[in-house]
Automatic annotation (TrEMBL):
This is Uncharacterized protein. It comes from the Eukaryota. Residues 1-31 are annotated as: Disordered. RCC repeats lie at residues 119-177, 178-233, 235-294, 295-352. The keyword Repeat applies.
Amino acid sequence: MMRWRSIGQTSFGTDLNEDKSKSLEGTGSKRKRHSGIQISFITQICGGETFCIAMNDTNQLIGWGSAFYGELGAEDGIQGSTMNEEYQVICAKPHVLFPSSLLRWQRVACGWHHVLASGFLYAWGSNTYGQVGPFPPDPKSNSKLPNCVFTPNLVALPVAVIQVSAGFGHSMLLDQSHRLWTWGRNWYGELGLGEAFRDIKSVQTPQLVERTESQPIQLIAAGYAHSAAISLEFGQLYTFGWGLYHQLGHGTTENRHELTRIEAFDGIFDHQGSPLRIKTVACGMWHTAACTSSGDLYTWGWNQDGQLGHEAKASKLSPCVVSSQNPATQESLENVKDVVCGGRHTTALCKDGQVFHWGLQPSSNVKGVRAIASGHSNAYILPINKN
């Protein structure tokens, strides 16, 4: 069963967890541990493969979990340099990242092993594919982990950043003109840079996706090796990147190197009779989910673990609406306002504060929630402020 990570007002993260730390004792790993802290109010949260980062109401970043690649900051750098030892940083309780820094953040996004944070754009963590940026390896890196950045590095940009998203090996941002920039791994076209970049497998500096100069974007999402973007004007959904498991929603398994509109939504109208608008989109490893302005939830792609929320576990080639009678819980799934995807699970938040979760490690529903987030294997909830 999925264990909810409930992120409250004064303490959190204790579920990431004393027994897990104890189970790792005696493995020969080098570890550094941190004590917990009190936090007033959490405004944002995101998760990577084995770590989590939250932002509080004073715009500080707080992190916890396990970090192999510097995801939790400079003070948590790899200790030692012996190749045949396993190196891991364990933070069983939250701590403020970069406490000596005067930086105050506006947005944060976690990839599998790297982190993006803005006002100005900073990045750190694994830089294997250039997803952090054109930075030399940190001195703490070694021959076993040669491409790690352990401190926030400023990514030089000629624009202000309003949104960030991070996948396995690629990074995305929206600028103040609602244009899309991408960089990092490009094995399957997940950067959306078109035919000119088809044979370029990685890009270290942010590149403008030229199509978005005439087609402004309102929201972006990065998955394992595919990406999604919602247009600002009409709320249309575009996907690109890896298509093998139908996660792009175009009815084929082809990869797409350019932003491609999902035509399956054409001719569908919302509850008021207007053309359907996509409000939110999320990308997992091999599946995608989107909710509409009417509160309907659509999912598609790989479904072996039931992550699409449909009664049958067959994959879906194109977007299919999730029944209002959620087969995972047999309870009513209505008025969905947000959705997030982990590697092989999906979590939806309804307007009444009720949360539904399905896929690998299914969980019972939860009520009284104001926001949701997901890492690769965990789902996170922010409870409604009772004060």
